[in-house]
């Protein structure tokens, strides 16, 4: 899916990509990240994250119909929540997962998906609690360790976050989603060169998925290398989607520069009584 931007501030765009990385971290914790319910799955079987907007919306509707018939089916509910999240309905996604968490209060998979839904709604403290409760200390799941790190980053606890990323890499060496999340940690700090190093390492892994490469395109674009960013994005998206993403980046950076200039001009003005 292309990066969706509801306004043209760098923080919002980066947070959107970071939450996508968090979704990738939690997606494999015992649940499926592919749409596998109903007639659409039999005709396409495509992962949700690779669907175009229209396909995703249709998949969400079909999953909703299945969910209405059996709301306590873990697989259907978690897939439906994931589809809602990716289709832009974070509130309903959280409502689905909250109901499922009440029904399965000790289920690790449900807690992990609930934590993701909470984080996507900006409720980072409860999200951290849910992810930690889903973890089994004696047999730690690298996906949950990485998800915990991503949430800690959103809480501004970068040092602890990076310790967790490295712990996750010890458990799963060269895992692209962890490397990508670690790169996003440096994006949040504004260290785009270090971020790109991790992103490139992630994208070079044979099991890297579309989201990892789209995040690399984002980091390259944030550095103003728009042609290169569009080339990377075009490997995953249609030419129109890739161009649209780069256009968002250009607009965002132009607005940031204009805002900085206005602030500098304001500083230079003499004080008035």
TrEMBL record:
Keywords assigned: Signal, TPR repeat
Signal peptide: 1-23
Superkingdom of source: Bacteria
InterPro entries (alphabetical): TPR-like_helical_dom_sf, TPR_rpt, UCP035836
Swiss-Prot/TrEMBL TPR repeat ranges: 142-175
PANTHER family xrefs: CELL DIVISION CYCLE 16,23,27, CELL DIVISION CYCLE PROTEIN 27 HOMOLOG
Listed name of the protein: Uncharacterized protein
């Amino acid at each position: 899916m292309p990066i969706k931007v509801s306004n043209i501030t760098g923080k919002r765009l980066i947070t959107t990509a970071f939450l996508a990385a968090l979704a990738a971290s939690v997606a494999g914790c015992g649940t499926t990240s592919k749409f596998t319910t109903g007639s659409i799955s039999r005709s396409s079987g495509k992962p949700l994250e690779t669907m175009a907007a229209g396909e995703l919306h249709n998949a969400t509707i079909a999953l909703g119909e299945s969910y209405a018939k059996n709301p306590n089916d873990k697989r259907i509910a978690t897939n439906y929540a994931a589809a809602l999240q990716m289709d832009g309905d974070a509130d309903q996604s959280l409502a689905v997962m909250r109901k499922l968490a009440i029904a399965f209060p000790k289920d690790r998979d449900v807690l992990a998906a609930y934590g993701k839904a909470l984080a996507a709604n900006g409720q980072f403290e409860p999200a951290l609690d849910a992810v930690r409760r889903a973890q089994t200390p004696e047999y730690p799941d690298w996906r949950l360790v990485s998800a915990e790190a991503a949430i800690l980053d959103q809480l501004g606890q970068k040092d602890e976050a990076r310790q967790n990323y490295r712990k996750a890499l010890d458990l799963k060496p060269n895992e692209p989603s962890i490397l990508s999340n670690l790169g996003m940690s440096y994006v949040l700090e504004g260290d785009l060169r270090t971020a790109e190093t991790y992103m490139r390492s992630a994208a070079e892994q044979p099991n890297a998925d579309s989201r990892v490469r789209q995040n690399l395109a984002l980091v390259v674009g944030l550095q103003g290398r728009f042609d290169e960013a569009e080339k990377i994005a075009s490997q995953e998206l249609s030419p129109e989607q890739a161009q649209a993403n780069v256009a968002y980046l250009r607009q965002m950076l132009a607005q940031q520069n204009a805002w900085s200039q206005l602030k500098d001009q304001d500083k230079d003005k003499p004080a008035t009584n």
